[in-house]
Structure formats: C-alpha cells, structure tokens
Structure prediction request, 227 residues.
Amino acid sequence: MNDRTNGAPGAPDPEDPGDGPGNGSRFGIRRPRTRAEERIAGLDTSSATLAGELDEARARVAALEQELAEAKTGWQRAAADYQNLKRRTDQERAELGLFAGEGILRKLLPVADDLARAVAHRPAGADAAAGPWIEGVVAIERKLGALLASEGVTPIAALGLPFDPTRHEAIGRRPSTTAPDDSVVEELQRGYELAGRVLRPALVVVAENATPADGAPAPAAEQGQDG
Prediction:
C-alpha cells in the first residue's frame, strides 16, 4: 500500500502547506512579520495613551485655528489698506486731470472780465451799423462763459452775503445803516472757483454799521446825537 496515498490519518503531508502558524509557511514554520505589522503591534492602544493623543490633536487644531484667524485678520487689514490707497490714488489722479489746466483757466479770467464790462457798458442808442458788432461781442462773452463752465469754473457768490475770507477779498469798508455788518455791499471784481477750489477771490466792499446784533437801532447817545 502506498504511504503517500494511504498514510495514517493525521500524518502531515510534506507537500501540503497546511494551516499552521503563518498560514503559508511549510511545516508550521512562522514567517517574518512585515514592517506594517510590526508598527501595528508596537502601537500603544491603552485608554490613557489615546486620551493624551486626542488632547494633543485638539490643542493642535485650536492652534491652527488661531493662526488661521490671525492670517485672515491680516489679510483683511491688507485688503482695506489697498482699497484706501487705491481710492486716494484715483482721487489724486482725478484731481490732477481736473486741475491740470488751472493756470490757463486763471489767465482767461481777465478776458472774461473785459468782455463782461464791454457788454455791461454797451451804448444804449447804438446805430444799426454797430448792432451786429455789439451782438458779436455779446456772443463771444456768452461762449467764453460756457467754456469756463464746461471746465468746472463757476462764479463765486458775494453780493449781499456775509463776508467769507476764504472766498472774498475785502478792499474797503462802507458805512451802512441798512446792510448787516460785515456783509458784502459791492462786488468790484467777480471771483471764480474750480471744483470747490478758489481760482480767484471776489474783490468786495464790506458794510460797516453800528447796528447791534439784535437788529435794533443804536441809541442816540451811541450814535453821537444830542438828546
């Protein structure tokens, strides 16, 4: 009888890998463990160790969140600074373009003054031959005013208003019993401004009177009158 086919029950077969330790090693010889298996076997899975590692992970997450918040705050501050810088730069560029021709516009103001005086003092009874010439001067004065207005040049209001040293230049005072004290009673030369900036102040005469602040007439004694 062949021992290989009819051997005793339970006898190990040398060619059968069997299912001993290592599951694959022959004759029950254990195979070496892989590095992954060694790392897994070396892990400390006790409750205390896991709790400590969890606390460390939480602390690390909190630190990262703090760093993220600080980075976000810094980025927002940098973005705000950039927007402010861009706004100032755009404003300065716009002002540079607006006031680039300020010198030329200022030189045109005396021409506008002369034309305005010529129109204001035109003869009332001019003959028919002078009519077209006068109409031409009026048209030129009107076009120059429109040109100045299109460039942002506007007249400065003065007559009847309180004296404003930032926009008016007083060249004299005039006693008055009707106009409020320190109010403009005469405009000798029109003033102009460009986008809120004074190109030329208005030359004015300012009222001076003895009227008290409440508007009541001053007593006769204060006015130098005999009782």
